[in-house]
Write a structure and sequence with these properties.
This protein has one domain (15-466): Amino acid/polyamine transporter I, CATH 1.20.1740.10. 77% of the residues lie in helices and 0% in strands. The protein contains 19 helices and no strands. The protein has helices at residues 15-26, 29-41, 45-73, 77-88, 96-127, 136-148, 150-169, 172-201, 204-212, 221-234, 241-247, 255-282, 293-305, 310-343, 348-369, 383-410, 413-420, 425-455, 462-466. It starts with 14 loop residues before the first helix and ends with a helix. The relative contact order is 0.18.
C-alpha cells in the first residue's frame, strides 16, 4: 500500500469503520439544519422524492468513482491523481483534481469551524439558562450579540479547530477511526432521542405532512436544481475527503455496497432531522419553518425555552449539531495533512498543527465578515459569502464533474471493473453509463444555473434556453 512518495498509510480497521467515517464526513450542518427547511420551501414531499432520485442517479455513482480512485491510488488526493494520470497516460492537467479537492476542503473548514463554534456557544448558553422563557426578540438579540462580538467568535472558532486537529493529529486508526466509531453512534442516539421528544411534545402530524405530502404542482425548476445541488454536496463529493477515506479502505470491502450504505445513512439522518425539528417548530405557531439560519439559532431557542423539558433537549440538540459538525470537519483537512505527510517533509503532528494554524487564520476572515469586514465586498459577496460560493458553487461541482469524466472515460475500464468487483454485467454497465453521461450533464446543469442566478448571466442558464 505504498503511495507515490514511498510512504505507507494505515487502513481502517474494518469496512464498518470506513462506513462510519464516510457517513461522518457526509453528515453535518447541511443535514440537520439546511435539508429540513429547503425541503419545506421547495415542494415538501415532491422535493424529497426528487432529492432521493438525485442521490441515486448522481451522488452515488460519483461517490463510487471517488472511493474507487482513492483505493486504487492508496494515498492523498494529490498523489492519487499523479498515479492515476500516469496509469491512464492522460494529460497532466488532470492532476488538478487532487489539488482542487485539497484546497476546497481547506477553505470549507475555515468557515465551517466558525459556524460550528456557534453551536458550541449555544450549547453553553442553553446550559446556563440563557433561553429560559425567551421570546423572539430576545432570541434575535442573543444571536446578534454573539455575531457582533469578534472576541467571542474567535474563541469558539479556536476551540473547534483545536477539537478537529486533536483527532486528525492522532492518525487514521487511533484518531479518525476511533473518533468516528464514537461520534457517529452518539449522533444517531441523540437524534433518535430528539425524534421521540418531538413526537411527544411537538405537532408531529403537521411536520410529517409538511415534509412528505407530495404535490408536484408546487415543484418548480429551481426546486429541482436545489435538490440536485444538495444531493451532490451532502455526500461530501469533490473535496478530496471521500477520496482520501477511500485510500484507507480495506481491500476486501465491496465499494458499491459500502457507498450505498453511506448514502442511505446520510439520507436517513437528513429525514430524521426534519422529523425531529419541525414538530417543535409547528408546536409554536409564531415560528416560520423556512427561516434559514434563524430556524436553528433564533426560532428553536424560543421553542426550547418555552416548552416542558425544553432546556434539557435544547442542550441535546446543540450537542447534536456540534457532533455532526465535528465528524465532518476532520475529513475536510485530512487530504492536506495526508499529502504533506507523504512528502516526508513533516510528521502528522507537524502537518496537523501547521495546516490547522493556517486554516484558523483563514477562518478569521469569516469572523470579521460579521463585524469590521461586513461591508467589504468582492463582487457582491463579503469574505464568508465568497468562500462559500467559491467552494459550493464552483470547486465542488467542477471536482465531481472531472472525477466522473476521468473514471468514466479515461481510466482503464479493466482496472475499474476489477476494483469494483461487480458480478452482474448489467449493474456495472448501468453505473458506467450514468457516470459517463447523466451525472456530468446534471452536475454541469447545476453549476451553470448557479452561476446564472448569482451573476444574472441569463446566457448561461439552460432553463432560459429551454423556455
Amino acid at each position: 500500500m505504498s503511495d507515490k512518495a514511498g510512504r505507507v498509510h494505515e487502513t481502517w480497521s474494518s469496512r464498518w469503520t470506513f462506513i462510519m467515517a464516510a457517513t461522518g464526513s457526509a453528515v453535518g450542518l447541511g443535514n440537520i439544519w439546511k435539508f429540513p427547511y429547503i425541503a419545506g420551501e421547495n415542494g415538501g414531499g415532491a422535493f424529497v422524492l426528487i432529492y432521493l432520485f438525485c442521490i441515486l442517479a448522481i451522488g452515488i455513482p460519483v461517490m463510487i468513482a471517488e472511493v474507487l480512485m482513492g483505493r486504487w491510488g492508496r494515498s492523498s488526493p494529490v498523489h492519487t491523481m499523479y498515479k492515476l494520470v500516469d496509469d491512464a497516460k492522460a494529460p497532466r492537467i488532470w492532476h488538478g483534481i487532487g489539488w482542487m479537492g485539497v484546497v476546497a476542503g481547506f477553505i470549507i473548514l475555515s468557515y465551517y469551524s466558525v459556524i460550528a463554534g456557534w453551536a458550541i456557544r449555544y450549547f453553553l448558553q442553553v446550559a446556563g439558562g440563557a433561553i429560559q422563557s425567551i421570546d423572539g426578540q430576545a432570541a434575535s438579540d442573543l444571536f446578534t450579540s454573539m455575531l457582533s462580538s469578534t472576541g467571542t467568535l474567535v474563541f469558539y472558532h479556536s476551540l473547534f479547530m483545536v477539537m478537529t486537529m486533536f483527532v486528525v493529529i492522532a492518525g487514521v486508526t487511533k484518531g479518525l477511526g476511533r473518533a468516528v466509531r464514537i461520534l457517529m453512534p452518539v449522533l444517531m442516539v441523540m437524534l433518535v432521542i430528539l425524534l421521540f421528544f418531538s413526537m411527544r411534545i411537538g405537532d408531529f402530524p403537521a411536520a410529517f405532512k409538511y415534509l412528505f405530502s407530495v404535490d408536484f404542482s408546487s415543484l418548480s425548476g429551481p426546486a429541482i436544481l436545489t435538490a440536485l445541488g444538495h444531493a451532490f454536496f451532502t455526500l461530501s463529493l469533490g473535496m478530496g475527503a471521500i477520496m482520501v477515506y477511500g485510500a484507507y479502505m480495506p481491500d476486501h470491502a465491496p465499494i458499491g455496497k459500502t457507498v450505498l450504505t453511506v448514502a442511505g445513512l446520510d439520507t436517513l439522518v437528513a429525514l430524521m432531522a426534519g422529523l425531529a425539528i419541525f414538530p417543535i417548530v409547528f408546536a409554536n405557531t409564531a415560528i416560520a419553518p423556512g427561516e434559514g439560519p434563524g430556524l436553528l439559532f433564533i426560532s428553536l431557542p424560543v421553542a426550547f425555552g418555552n416548552m416542558p423539558g425544553g432546556m434539557a433537549f435544547g442542550m441535546l440538540f446543540f450537542a447534536l449539531v456540534t457532533v455532526a459538525a465535528w465528524s465532518s470537519s476532520i475529513s475536510l483537512i485530512e487530504p492536506a495533512v495526508s499529502w504533506l505527510v507523504e512528502t516526508g517533509k513533516a510528521t502528522r503532528l507537524q502537518a496537523g498543527v501547521g495546516f490547522g494554524l493556517i486554516c484558523w487564520l483563514l477562518g478569521l476572515g469569516t469572523v470579521f465578515s460579521f463585524g469590521p469586514w461586513e461591508d467589504i465586498r468582492l463582487f457582491q459577496f463579503n469574505f464568508f459569502e465568497f468562500a462559500d460560493f467559491l467552494t459550493a458553487n464552483i470547486m465542488l461541482p467542477v471536482g465531481g464533474l472531472l472525477m466522473a469524466i476521468f473514471v468514466g472515460w479515461m481510466m482503464d475500464q479493466t482496472i475499474v471493473r476489477q476494483e469494483l468487483d461487480i458480478e452482474r454485467d448489467w449493474v456495472f454497465n448501468l453505473w458506467r453509463a450514468v457516470l459517463r453521461v447523466f451525472s456530468p450533464i446534471a452536475i454541469l446543469w447545476v453549476t451553470l444555473e448557479g452561476l446564472s442566478d448569482i451573476f444574472g448571466w441569463e446566457w448561461l442558464s439552460l432553463m432560459s434556453w429551454l423556455s
